[in-house]
């Protein structure tokens, strides 16, 4: 039976975990600065804020009808902040409100053609930026990294579904480690 990293830490596994932790710290600084998103906003949509792109992207992660509340939930925002973001995007012509087909009393949010065009440009530009960072990697390295990165982020999402650091899940992990 193969033991997992959490079952038994060899010296090398402990060193690898420490290295991953250090690299995550460097990545956190880059993510905190929103380097890629700032580049996208500056070059493609200077009238928008990064949070606007986040809201447009969040729509892709919603199953079923997209509502203001669902966008706020996915973004882990207060509903009033989600409502303001959507209103700003409607004003910019990137979203429109429609009546729900399931319940005509409910309002849903739909990307406009302009919104779809912007997101297509954002996706293409983001992929070009990532491709430039991954230039020189072999197909095998890209394939392995893509699978492992997805596995890592999926475990993160599973561990912290809608919680902040310091939450009961985080405390459980720290006290059982």
Layout of secondary structure:
Layout: H1 11-33, H2 35-44, H3 50-58, H4 68-75, H5 79-91, E1 95-99, E2 107-111, H6 113-133, H7 139-159, H8 168-176
Antiparallel strand pairs: 1-2
Helix pairs in contact: 4-5
Give me a quick take on this structure.
The chain contains 8 helices and 2 strands; from the N terminus they run αααααββααα. With 177 residues, it is mostly helical.
Which labels suit this protein?
177 residues, mainly alpha, Arc Repressor Mutant, subunit A, two-stranded antiparallel sheet, 8 helices, 64% helix
Task: Explain what the structure shows.
By secondary structure, this protein is mainly α. Among the domains are: 52-119, Orthogonal Bundle (Arc Repressor Mutant, subunit A); 136-177, no CATH class. The protein contains eight helices and two strands. It has helices at residues 11-33, 35-44, 50-58, 68-75, 79-91, 113-133, 139-159, 168-176; strands at residues 95-99, 107-111. Strands 1-2 form a two-stranded antiparallel sheet. A hairpin with a 7-residue loop joins strand 1 and strand 2. Helix 4 crosses helix 5 (79-91). It is globular and about 60 Å long. The protein starts with 10 loop residues before the first helix and ends with a helix.
Arithmetic mean of pLDDT = 86
> How far apart, in Å, are the first and last alpha carbons?
21 Å
- What's the count of strands? 2
The radius of gyration over CA amounts to 20 Å
Biggest β-sheet description: 2 strands, antiparallel
Named at the architecture level, the CATH assignment of the domain at 52-119 is: Orthogonal Bundle
Q: Specify the helix fraction band.
A: 55-70%
Query: For this structure, what is the CATH class of the domain at 52-119?
Result: Mainly Alpha
Global shape: globular
Weakly predicted, low-confidence segments:
none
Instruction: Spell out the CATH superfamily of the domain at 52-119.
Output: Winged helix-like DNA-binding domain superfamily/Winged helix DNA-binding domain
Say what the CATH topology of the domain at 52-119 is.
Arc Repressor Mutant, subunit A
Percent of residues in beta strands?
Answer: 5-15%
Please provide the ordered H/E string of secondary-structure elements: HHHHHEEHHH
Strand order of the largest sheet: 1-2
């Amino acid at each position: 039976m193969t033991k997992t990293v959490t079952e038994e830490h060899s010296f090398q596994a402990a060193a690898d975990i420490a290295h991953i932790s250090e690299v995550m710290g460097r990545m956190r600084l880059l993510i905190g600065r929103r380097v890629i998103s700032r580049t996208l906003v500056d070059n493609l949509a200077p009238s928008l804020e990064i949070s606007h792109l986040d809201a447009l992207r969040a729509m892709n992660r919603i199953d079923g009808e997209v509502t203001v509340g669902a966008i706020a939930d996915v973004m882990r925002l207060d509903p009033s902040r989600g409502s303001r973001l959507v209103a700003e995007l409607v004003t910019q012509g990137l979203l429109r409100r429609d009546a729900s087909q399931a319940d005509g009393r409910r309002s849903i949010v739909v990307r406009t053609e302009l919104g779809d065009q912007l997101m297509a440009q954002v996706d293409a530009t983001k992929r070009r930026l990532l491709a430039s960072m991954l230039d020189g990697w072999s197909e095998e390295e890209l394939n392995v990294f893509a699978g492992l990165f997805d596995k890592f982020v999926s475990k993160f999402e599973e561990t912290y579904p809608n919680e902040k650091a310091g939450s009961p899940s985080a405390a459980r992990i720290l006290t059982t480690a």
